[in-house]
Structure formats: C-alpha cells, structure tokens
Sequence to fold (404 residues):
Amino acid sequence: MNIAMGVSGGIAAYKAAELARLLMENGHTVEVVLTHAAQEFIRPLTFAALTGRKVITDLFATGGGDEVLSSAIEHIRVAQDNELLLVAPATADLLAKFAHGLANDFLSTLYLAFRGPVVLAPAMNSNMWQHDATRANLATLASRGHTIVEPGVGHLACGMVGAGRLAEPAQIAAVVQALAHPRRDLDGEVVLITAGPTQEPLDPVRFLSNRSSGKMGYALAEAARARGARVILVSGPVELARLVDVETVSVRTAREMRDAVMARVPEATIIIKAAAVADFHLELVPQQKIKKTPARFSLELSPTPDILAEVGAVRGDRLLIGFAAETQDLVREARRKLETKKCDMVVGNLVGGEGLGFESDENEVVLVTRRGDAIPVARASKRAIADRILDESLKLRLALHGVA
Ligand code: CTP
Fold:
C-alpha cells in the first residue's frame, strides 16, 4: 500500500523514523511529509535514507518557474498517489488544524485533498491531551471515521507522568496493517450490541446508574463494522462520539433497552450484551423531587427485566455473548451466568481495580465458553479485546454448529 506519513512537531518525532522503517518492512511504500516544527526535532535526511524517497518539507518550493507551479499542486499529487494518510506523532495543534479544516501548510492541505482512510497517532503533554478543546477535536475527527491510535501512559518529556505518550511504533504499524488487509469475516452478519449503563429515575432530577463508560460496547461495534457486519448498537447514556455507519438506538432505562433489544433480535445473527444494565429500578417514579427529611429514608426497588436471560430464551441458533463484571470469583461467576442466561460465551472482567474495566481504554478479560473453556486474554486496548472476542465467537460457532 502507498502510505503518506505526516510527522508533526513533538519530541516523539524521533519515533516516526522507527515507524517508517516498520511500514517499509511490512511491504508498504512511504512518502514522508514533515511540518516545519517537525524539522526542529528530526532532519528530512533521516526519512529520505529510510524510505529512499524525497521528503516533503514545504508547501511552496523556493525555486522559480515550473518548479513553483509543480510544487503548488504537489499536495494534490500526494493525495492521489497514496491510499492511506498516517500522522505520527499528531500534535494538539495538528489535531486542531485537521478538525477545523485549516490549510496553511503542506500536511493540512494534503489532509483536505485526501479521500482515503486517515490514521492519527497523537502525542502531547497529559494536560493538553485531556483539555476539552483536544477532546472536542478528537471527537470531530473520530466522527469522520478516522482511526485514532490512543497514546499510552508513561513518563513524558515534560517530566509529567500520564497519558499522552505516542503509542509504540509497532502498535501503530499493526493498526495500519489491519486497515491494509481488513478482515471481512463478518460479511453478511447482523450484530446487535448493547453498550453503556442504564439510568433508572428516582424522581425528576435523580437516577440510579453505574460507572460503565460504554467504551467496550463501542469498541465491539467498531470492530464488527470494520469486519463487514451490519451493526445495530443499542446504547445507554454515554459520552462517546456516535459511530459512523453504525445504526445507534439511544435508550435510557433498562426497560427501554429491553424493548429496543427484543425488537431487533429477529434480524440479528450475533448478539453481544456488553451493557451494564441496572438490576433495580423504582417502579412508580414520583412526579416531584423527593424532599430532604431529617428521618431515615428508604426506597423500595424492584428488579429490572433481565434482558440477556430474555434473549437467551428466544435466541434460537443466534450466537449469544454476555458480559460479567465481577469484583471477585470471576470465572465461577461468568460460568454461572453462561448457564443461567443460556449464552455461548461470557466475557468476564474484573472491575473496581486501577486502570482496567469500566472507564479505562484497556481491559483484561477471560472468555468462558459453552464448550467449557476459560480463555484468558491479556491486557490490551478495548479495540484489540473486541477483535479477540469476535475471533473466539466465530471459532466457537464453527465448533458448535459447523457455521463459520
Ligand atoms: N444483563 C441484562 N439485564 C439485566 C442485568 C444484566 O441483560 N437486567 C446482562 C448484562 O448486559 C451482561 C450480563 O447480563 O451481559 C451480566 O450482567 P451482570 O450485571 O454482571 O450480572 P447480573 O445478572 O446482574 O448478576 P449480578 O448482579 O448478581 O452479578
């Protein structure tokens, strides 16, 4: 594949040289574009030597006559010649430029002229990474279907420890590989996924809920879509960007989620229940706000419908995958839920610890299957875990029903 690789100006620019080498090793051609700031950190010659090609460093060449004319349209040529645009590292400034469509240097004009898939690997100081402006720019870029290779957590050049360190070159190269050779093993499948928490109102201003972020369910939806499936995502209230090409049904309560799911079961071939559904709700929600009283106060809660168990009763030969979020006895609990809710697989994950589970971008799970396996999946991004869940589900279906 022909890859245009942009490098913007951050300390991590030196890692881009290793990335260029890995991409070449994987058989791609790489045309490097350095921003002005990037050239303060790394010389064009490094990339020219690695890629065997001229490195683009400016929007307008300084020569005269024909050279000026050809360089003025060079970004169009680069946009047409390449099938993927990768930027690593992508600084906060670069993300802002792309998000807002500024076009004042070669890389930003190339971005606007480019029509293929875009991969962005951000790197910056953690405060900049967490700033609302950066979050908003990332949400805009993700909503355009671009792939964001999330930065890792670690020591940063500024002396801070936190999120913002450029993902490892091998990880970025793996993302590019996946885009270069997309698996289409879910072509023709309809995958119904639930994600996020539910909210059960207690009065007009209060509700019962949990810490689910929805990230695991959204990662599954993205992975299934990338592998060719039609995806229906029934989502509780989450703060995640809407996914492109995924039919999203927004719900709030367990009851609404149940109705949305049961309505779509007939058309699904694979059902994955990643949502953290509230187990209890208040049946008669008062119309007015509950007032404070000096006395003790209790509410009587009723159980919500167990959606997974209901689906389990009507699933037929659809593949059914549940989740079990546990604070202890992970495998035993996952196995119990597998039996009682008639699932083919239960994805067990430990919650309540540091850096994993609900709000995290990473997870570590065990896949308990109807065949009796308990497959540990080591800590990885939720997207990588999502692909692994889909891989194991397809293998399981093959083993159980002989259908690939
Ligand atoms: N689930 C569901 N409907 C509910 C509760 C849970 O569909 N009312 C689904 C979840 O989406 C998940 C699985 O059941 O796929 C397990 O959820 P979990 O909360 O771990 O299990 P519970 O059945 O609620 O059991 P417990 O709270 O006792 O651990």
Q: What stands out?
A: The mean pLDDT is 92. The chain is about 35% helix and 25% strand. Residues 254, 273, 275, 277, 279, 304, 306-308, 322-325, 337 surround cytidine-5'-triphosphate (CB under 6 Å). The longest helix spans residues 382-401.
